[in-house]
Amino acid sequence: MTSFVEKRLDFERTLPISLVHKPSNDLVMLTDYVALSRTETLLGAQVSRSHGLYQESILASKGYDIAALVEICRQACFVVAHTQFGLSLEENRYQFLFRELESHIEDEALRVTHPIGQPIRIVVRSSVEKELRTEGRTSGLTWRYDLSDLNEGKIATVRIQQSFVDRVRWKQIRREMCDDRGMAFQSPIEIPAEGEIGPAEVARWNPQNVTLLQVSESAGSFHALARFDPRHPVLFDRPTADHIFAMMQLESCRQLALYTVARTLRIDAFALAVSSCNAVFMSMCEVNLPVRLRATLSVDHVKSGRTNVDIQLEQQSRIVSRFKLDVQVAS
């Protein structure tokens, strides 16, 4: 029987690449949207069963990757801002800046097994909780996203805060920022050295998806050096990137959190899953400069079966972002 949601949403095709700020169709995860009001939107999404990053194990499709769910919602931000809040798509006038993230996956969703041969379809209910306006235009939005399957089974809740800066002004800001940091604006991105971390150590199958160069432990903390390869078609989806995107930082923190908990509990990293991820993005993360991560585990949560991992990203003695992740046994 066709559900009410399936009647409202089209899952037959993806949205235009320009609407979700992607360079190619294979990176688009949204299929449709229906504006219910100025602040309420219903969207359809699909996670490819053969996705090179978010669905690596194509024969054992289980649970949901928190990064994939956040990426779905991030793409939804563009759709809502362009179609319902007057940010012109044709002019490509605004730079979208990720400010804050809150995300949580339901326990049942971490353990669900996706039926063989069936698409992984997701319904996204978007609500704009706060709008900032500057000089008569929308300059920032805070969204709440409730994600569910087609049977209305709850998957996750995601909150995202973004601000929008005029692109001409943004380029001026970035040039001044790079000058202050002793860097050339929009310089070619360097290919990093091969890493020391194996994919299984961070619950990845493909070594090309590993975003950590090396990890060490000292004084009760884990210290890592990030590895961002500009050839990666998902994390670096456009060669003109002038900074390390929020989604790249999220993936590095996800991997470090799984690595640290697996080492601490002496458990296979594949048996673990990130159930929540909150982040505050404080400073622009530059390309071609070392990005260092420091992870600290909360001992109080280890005994309860949920391990809290606080991770701080630093660059040039400057705090770039702070992440707080919950890791639990998922299988």
Summarize the structure in words.
This is AfsA-related hotdog domain-containing protein. InterPro entries: AfsA_hotdog_dom. The protein is an alpha+beta fold. It folds into 2 domains: 4-170, Hotdog Thioesterase (Thiol Ester Dehydrase, Chain A), CATH 3.10.129; 184-329, Roll (Thiol Ester Dehydrase, Chain A), CATH 3.10.129. It is 20% helix and 36% strand. The protein is built from 6 helices and 12 strands. It has helices at residues 4-8, 66-84, 107-111, 167-180, 246-265, 299-302; strands spanning 30-35, 40-47, 94-105, 120-134, 137-148, 154-166, 212-218, 221-226, 272-281, 292-298, 306-315, 318-329. It is globular, with a radius of gyration of 19 Å.
Which descriptor suits the 3D outline? globular
Q: Please write the CATH class name of the largest domain.
A: Alpha Beta
Class by alpha and beta content = alpha+beta
Tell me the CATH topology of the largest domain: Thiol Ester Dehydrase, Chain A
Q: Number of DSSP strands?
A: 12
Major sheet strand order: 1-2-4-5-6-3-9-12-11-10-8-7
* Cα gyration radius (Å): 19 Å
> What share of the residues lie within helices?
10-25%
Which residue ranges are poorly predicted, with pLDDT under 50 across at least 5 consecutive positions?
none
Question: How much of the sequence is in beta strands?
Answer: 35-45%
Report the span from N to C terminus.
32 Å
What is the H/E string?
A: HEEHEHEEEHEEHEEHEE
CATH superfamily of the largest domain: Hotdog Thioesterase
At CATH's second level, what is the architecture of the largest domain?
Roll
The count of helical stretches stands at 6
